[in-house]
Each structure stands twice: as structure tokens, then as C-alpha cells.
Amino acid sequence: MKIFCSKDALLSGVNSVQRAVSSKNTLPVLQGILIIALEQSLQFAATDLEMGIRCEVPAQVSEEGTMVVPAKLFTEVVRKLPDTTITLEERDKSIIICYYQSEIILNGYDPEEFPLLPDLMDPISFTLPTTIFKDMIRQTIFSCSIEENRPVFTGTLLQIEGSNIRLVATDTHRLAYSIAEIPNPEELQFSGIIPARTLSEIYRLLRDEDEDLTISSSNTQVVFQFGAIYLISRLIDGQFPNYKQVIPQTCETKVNLSVKSFLEAVERASLLSHDKNGANIIRINVEKTDLKIDLTSELGKISEQIGIETEGKDVIIAFNAKFLIDALKIIDSDQIIFELSGPFSPGVMRPLDNPNYLYLVLPVRTS
Predict the structure, then answer these.
(1) Which of 215, 328, 334, 339 is within CB 3.0–4.6 Å of 251 for a Cys-Cys bond?
(2) What is the pTM of this model?
(3) Burial 152-173 (b: 16+ CB within 10 A, else e)
(4) Residues of the domain holding 41
(5) Mean pLDDT for the stretch of residues 339-365
């Protein structure tokens, strides 16, 4: 195998796939990146057997072939290379990198041992604009659980029904829900739990110039294709909870308030809310035209007041400040409606100008 390509092309290839490289797998070859030289392109691939990423970059191929390079070392070497044409050659599992009058030789792995990323057989496929899906990931992924003992909560439910696509994430203390419209003339349906790690990779790799994203799925795997990227991931096995039952259909109190003012007030109050047990609880008091946050802790005292519009009853309710801040930071609207139903029922935030998003957060019981 022998190819000529730019440093930028090599860097683009390794940067696209390196997050799929296994860090703790018992198979040494999975700590490598597979590089295939074919016609006038280089194909890079990496997998940890849970997720795999493949991408293609342009190159001048004088001799087709395959090599597996040590991912971490090869990436560091490529970053340090000069901006010139780079020659890559493979001889007896060694990788020879030439530039100017210099060369680096790295020991590689046997390409025969590298598991190829599968292409799905007879998949269900949908296409949608990348900007829509990227927004949906940003609005939901932070609500996934990081506790591995309940796998279904470490992923996001992806549902496609009719012309609707939904992402729903919950860690059992809060729930984020985003819905959008997509073309689906054949009325195909899909429901699966995508690992949060997979979605965060897609979010990282999606670029504004990637106009369309194609999602293909089988019973156990899902593939995302956009630009020069092919990403395959397992689906999380298990039953996602019935989120529709959790979202209240009515409320006793509706509060219309500024996202910016509420976020800043909660952030300031949270600075004083950390107690010796590590809790981060703030108490909110809604009274007619004011929302008040009064807090006294061993660190000091704060009294915040925001002007609001209210329908319904006055209410006093406590929340984990972090759970409010996480949602308020990703809401793009200037105003939200905060729906409350007493101190023991969930609160629901809805952006005033976006009916396609909601965020539910459970209150904290305080003495």
C-alpha cells in the first residue's frame, strides 16, 4: 500500500473516528485505526464493538491496500507533521510516514484481525435536515443518566411515527422531550434507545454544511450517515418508561417569566445552596406578580425577586438548582411558561414560542 495525501486530510480522518477507538477492550487491534486505500480515497474506521465510525478523505493512491495504525500514537504524529504532502506506506505491518527528506516508522497491527463495520441488511431509513437533529440532541441529551446500573436511562429514546420524530431522555429525576416534523411518505415507524455517547459523537461530528442526515435501523443497530461519515451503534436493550404518563396534562399554576432573569437568579442562589451533604436545593415562592428565591445557608443568605405573570394559585416548591440551570441554558426562547401543581408535583417548562419542546423536573421534598 502506498498513498500521497495532505496533512489536513489525514487529520480529518483520524479526528473523525478516534472517539470510537477502544480504550479498555481486550483485543489489542481495537486500539488501532483501520486505513483502507481504495481508488482515490482513504477510508478510516474505528470501533469498540459498541459503536463504530467510518469516514472517507481524498488521497492519491498509487498502490491500494490496508493497514491498522496505533490510534493514539498515529494521531499525535499526524498533528505534529508539517503542512506538506505526506506519503504513507505499509510494509509487513509497519507504517512508514514520509515528508520532505524525513520518515517515521510505526509498528502496526494485523488488518486481518480488525472487525469490519457491518452494513445493515434491509434497514428502515429516514432522512432529515442535520440542523433539526443537532438541535434535538442538544435539547435532550443532558437529561440522560450517567448511572450504568439502569442502562435504558443512559440513552435517549428515538421515535419516528408518521411525520414526527421525537427524542426523549430521562434520568428519573427530570425528562427532556423534543419533537420535529420530517418527511415520511411511506409512514415507516421506528422506536429505539440510542446510547447517549453515540448521540454526543453525532453532535460533535455534525457540521452546518452537512445538509442531510440519514438514519437507518435494524432491530439491534442504528446507522447515521452524513457528509463523509458513517456511524453505526448498538441500540440499548430494554423497555423505556412510558413518558406520556409522566407529563401532566393540566396544572394549577402557570408562570410566564424571562429565561435570562430566571437563569441568572437561580445561578446566583445556587452558589449559596450547597450544604454539607452536597445537596443543591433552592426554594421558589410564586406569589401573584413575583417569583422569589430566599435562601439561608451556612455560606450566607440571598434574596432574589423576579417580576412574572401568573395564572392560578400561589405555590412554594423546591428544586435541585442544577436541574433548572441545565434546562434554562439550552432553551433558546426569551420567555418560558413554567407549569406547577403544588409542592409535590413535577414542574414543566415550555418555551413560549416553541410548542415542540418541554422539560419536566421533579421537586425536592424539604422539611
Answers:
(1) 339
(2) 0.93
(3) ebbbbbbbbeeeebbbbbbbeb
(4) 2-113
(5) 96
